Amino acid sequence: MNIAYGSVAVGLAVLAIKTLAWWLTGSVALLSDALESIVNVATALAALIALRIAAQPADADHPYGHHKAEYFSAVLEGVLIVVAAILILREAWNAWENPRVISEPWLGLGINLTASVLNGIWCWVLLRAGRELRSPALAADGRHLMTDVVSSVGVTAGVVLAVLTGWWWLDPALAALVALNILWSGWQVVRGSVGGLMDEAAPEDEIEQMRALISANAEGAVEAHDLRSRRAGRALFVEFHLVVPGEMSVDAAHEICDRIEAALHGAFEGSRVTIHVEPEHKAKHSGIVVL
């Protein structure tokens, strides 16, 4: 949660710095950079709200928890990115029709570069936290921030070229390129979040790891089949059927289930495991072979 609060603080600081750079120069390319920072602040606030909701425990109305709230945050971020891109394209078109000389370019670029460095450091923090915490909201925020850093570097280089050559049309052209880059970023964020909202299965490498753990820890059972999984934010839901000998006692079958669950919980933090025990005549002779 502290990371989410940090994102809001960093976003506000970067927005203030980039707005100052645009105010000094009048560059539409630097304006596009500042507009993207407004999106960063809005999405950081959305991620903070989503994380607070997702952290709430399961209740009677939400027995599986509130983890999917993070995906709604990521989708909202994608929509805001698209809105920012449209605003930037409009400003770029106006500047293309009425080219303007950039004032105080070196001071403005130096200030803008300071914001880019701050963004780059925080981007690294967010991406690392998103991987470690398996948080779609933090990961989406980090990916978008990386796009912001890359576009800021491109904008800085382009404005330098415009100042040195006097080709002032480069300023709106760069702004348009930034907008297109932001649109691509928004599409990537939305696409990844929709997969989570649609109960997309865990990645293939994780499924193979599950199969191996079940096989290695199901001694006494006959087989396991119909393995299914889905991710919801940081939670991983796993369910499958476990076939045991018909004469096996409930206590013995339960002990096997406990052993498998412990192995899966150890490998996948935040996993929720559901096992349906079946008698031997339900075996499909396919799926996971017990070692």
From TrEMBL:
It is found in: Cell membrane. The chain crosses the membrane at residues 37-55, 71-89, 109-127, 148-167. One of its GO terms (cellular component) is plasma membrane. GO terms for molecular function: cadmium ion transmembrane transporter activity; ferrous iron transmembrane transporter activity; zinc efflux antiporter activity. Residues 203-280 form the Cation efflux protein cytoplasmic domain. Coiled coil: none annotated. Residues 7-198 form the Cation efflux protein transmembrane domain. Keywords: Cell membrane, Membrane, Transmembrane, Transmembrane helix, Transport. Its main location: membrane. One of its GO terms (biological process) is intracellular zinc ion homeostasis. It is a multi-pass membrane protein. Belongs to the cation diffusion facilitator (CDF) transporter (TC 2.A.4) family. This is Protein p34. It comes from Salipiger abyssi.
